[in-house]
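Propose amino acids for all 197 sites.
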């Protein structure tokens, strides 16, 4: 009478019929708060829940432990690994992230490059799926089938190369960009004779 399912990896729910989506570093993050109702917020090493299907290694109430390149521990940090990088919703049927407009990748882990040809990317201003129509979040339209139906094509309007901020910084006299989001923001390196985002 007290039996329950122990789900296989990447499955969850009472009957293990729901999928878990890919995780990535969260673009935006907050501490989870007082999960155990103890009236205190634990720190990065106080595991509150361990062994769940979504967080098999546990979950904490405070920000995750992070350190800088010198090894100094930084307090009140964010950007923990979250499902769909906190920039999309998980489709529990097929285990795919449906990303907010302007984000792509299996875990919505990076920003999309602008494109005039693809009205689903930011800055296009064309069609009903353009970024201008998504300034106010609408769960019924913004997430409807985006992950499966809208692919990124003709990025940079076909007149440039989509690159990470780390790559763009290096092309600017060998500058170094090595923060947590070095592979997240994307931008266009325009071909000669072309300008614009």
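Proposal:
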């Amino acid at each position: 009478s007290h039996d329950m399912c122990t789900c296989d990896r990447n499955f969850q729910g009472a009957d293990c019929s729901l999928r878990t989506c890919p995780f990535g570093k969260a673009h935006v993050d907050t501490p989870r708060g007082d999960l155990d109702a103890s009236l205190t917020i634990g720190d990065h090493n106080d595991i509150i829940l361990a062994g769940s299907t979504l967080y098999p290694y546990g979950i904490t109430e405070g920000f995750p432990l992070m350190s800088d390149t010198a090894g100094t521990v930084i307090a009140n940090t964010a950007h923990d690994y979250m499902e769909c990088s906190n920039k999309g919703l998980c489709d529990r049927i097929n285990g795919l992230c449906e990303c907010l407009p302007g984000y792509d990748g299996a875990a919505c882990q990076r920003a999309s490059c602008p494109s005039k040809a693809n009205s689903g990317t930011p800055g296009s201003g064309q069609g009903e799926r353009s970024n201008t129509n998504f300034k106010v979040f609408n769960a019924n339209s913004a997430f409807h089938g985006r992950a499966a139906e809208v692919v990124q094509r003709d990025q940079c309007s076909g007149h440039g190369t989509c690159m990470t901020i780390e790559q763009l910084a290096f092309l600017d006299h060998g500058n170094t960009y090595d923060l947590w989001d070095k592979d997240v923001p994307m931008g266009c390196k325009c071909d000669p004779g072309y300008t614009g985002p």
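Confidence is low (pLDDT under 50) at residues 118-151. The two ends are 61 Å apart (CA to CA).
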